[in-house]
């Protein structure tokens, strides 16, 4: 039923490029500050902030890749690469990024993907970081958490139109880190016998975007079964993919 997406690997490369650019920019500012003997507190804070933002880009890119069909080990291998980049870029002392992937249920190797039949779906990555920076002038030891989560909740109902034709209505909400978010791509499926069909123009398919993370989709379909099963496949604007299935309630 799920369509393969080709963007996962491209997004991962883009995430590393963005993370590296952030780091390189702040590292240059930090080095200039040392050469000119200017106050370094702001540049150090910005440097550490760039590391956190870089970590976030890597986690988001990894989850986008995994949710689009990549290997679950992608998160760990990418964070190892990111840690290696950090250890090599800082010239004045020791720069070490350690990370721990969450293993507490429902997470495994830092990943939780649940695309259920109860109207709820989630794609999530969770990692705990400790960054240490030390040389003759500075000593930084900071911990931070990255929990990137995209979730979709759907409710569906239908009413008989004529014969086996049914009018199906679906309301769904997209959440990013628990907050309403906009979708980049939405595909609605409905089940006929043992196969899934895409709702499209031939079904008088319409979708309404309320602009606040809530969407309403409606279509007509010839579905012989009294059990009308639907599925919402959604990619957020970070290209993290999530889906959820539901059985429609007759009204």
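Q: What amino acid sequence fits the structure above?
A:
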């Amino acid at each position: 039923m799920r369509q393969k997406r080709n963007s996962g690997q491209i997004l991962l490369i883009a995430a590393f490029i963005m993370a590296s650019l952030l780091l390189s920019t702040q590292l240059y500012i930090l080095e200039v500050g040392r050469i000119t003997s200017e106050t370094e507190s702001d540049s150090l804070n910005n440097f550490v902030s760039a590391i956190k933002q870089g970590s976030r880009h890597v986690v988001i890119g990894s989850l986008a890749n995994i949710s689009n069909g990549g290997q679950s080990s992608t998160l760990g291998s990418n964070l190892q690469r990111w840690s290696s980049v950090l250890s090599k870029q800082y010239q004045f002392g020791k720069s070490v990024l350690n990370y721990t992937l969450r293993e507490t249920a429902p997470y495994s190797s830092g990943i939780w993907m649940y695309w259920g039949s109860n109207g709820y779906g989630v794609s999530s990555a969770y990692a705990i970081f400790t960054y240490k920076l030390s040389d003759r002038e500075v000593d930084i030891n900071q911990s931070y958490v990255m929990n990137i989560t995209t979730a979709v909740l759907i409710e569906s109902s239908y009413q008989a139109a004529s014969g086996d034709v049914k009018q199906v209505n679906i309301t769904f909400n997209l959440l990013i880190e628990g907050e309403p978010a906009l979708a980049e791509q939405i595909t609605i499926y409905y089940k006929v016998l043992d196969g899934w069909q895409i709702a499209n123009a031939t079904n008088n398919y319409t979708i309404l975007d309320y602009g606040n993370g809530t969407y309403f989709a409606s279509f007509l379909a010839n579905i012989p079964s009294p059990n009308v099963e639907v599925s919402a496949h959604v990619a957020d604007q970070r290209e993290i993919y999530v889906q959820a299935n539901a059985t429609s309630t007759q009204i």
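Q: And what stands out in the fold?
A: The longest strand covers residues 139-162.
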